[in-house]
Design goal:
about 25% helix; 60s Ribosomal Protein L30, Chain: A; globular; 6 strands
């Protein structure tokens, strides 16, 4: 029997900037909405300065969403990174990003440059995770 699709709103995660769920789960696959570098739950919170700090904050926010549904970053299988200033920020973003995953357990990843991001962020990251078999 297939489990129903779950639409997650996670307490403690930043409020969505548009009409969407923090994550949607279907058949053990978890699709986490792109997170922005908000330092609190309000979308009016200022962003940290610099790409390294914004990357760390986005990763913290992704971790908050995953932990709120009983998972962690170790369950991520695919990540997409969106950079507003690709050429300027790519190397520094990678240095900050790499600290969140074990070197032998990094998810597949795509990184693209974009013309703009919500609320003027320099970075947004979304991901797909997989719930371990037998976990609910």
């Amino acid at each position: 029997m297939t489990a129903p699709t779950c639409f997650h709103r996670v307490p403690g995660a930043p409020d969505p900037v548009a009409p969407f769920s923090h994550a949607v789960e279907a058949d053990g696959w978890v699709f986490v909405t792109g997170q922005m570098p908000f330092t609190g739950t309000s979308i009016d919170e200022p962003y940290p300065d610099g790409i390294e700090a914004q990357t760390r904050q986005v990763m913290k926010n992704l971790d908050t969403v995953l932990r709120g549904i009983g998972l962690g970053l170790a369950d991520a299988v695919s990540v997409r990174v969106y950079l507003r200033h690709f050429d300027d920020d790519y190397d520094a973003m990678n240095a900050a990003y790499a600290t969140w995953f074990a070197a032998d357990r990094r998810p597949a990843r795509t990184c693209v440059g974009v013309a703009g991001l919500a609320k003027g962020a320099r970075i947004e990251i979304d991901l797909v995770a997989r719930r371990p078999s037998g976990a609910a």
